[in-house]
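**Reference record**
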Amino acid sequence: MSARCLYFGCWNQPGHRLVGPGGGRPDGLTHSEAWDLSCKLDGGFAPRSGRSGKLCWQQMAPEWEDDRKLGWELRDSGECPQGQFLLHHGVHGYTLIQWWDRCQGDTRGACNSSILLEGDHTSEEMLAALREHFPHVLANLERAGVALVEVTP
């Protein structure tokens, strides 16, 4: 794959970070760009079960016509099970999937992982990129008995 692929999450220890394949600093991003992207990613796109039972996520405000309704929905929302992911397009030029994940070196709540692939991609392409560029993330999930499964709002 020629598109830039990134991972955001815990990298075998507590603390979320944005990395390129192999765990190094992402190529082609300034420190400022990486920081801006990381701030939006940290749990912002992982699925939550909203107050009404609908799926929601923290960064979905632009997709809701009434921000008050979003606030009400998110107020009592909870994390969906580990491994359930949402597919998102057009986040700073990337497609991303994000899921709650306590298998990458930190078992505390609010731990999440993301795979980002430059351009517009399907879930299958995202999972293939994860398998190709960050195989240890999948291995950690498999050891814990967590499967990646797409959910839709």
User: Anything to note?
Assistant: The chain has one domain: 5-150. Residues 5-150 form one domain.
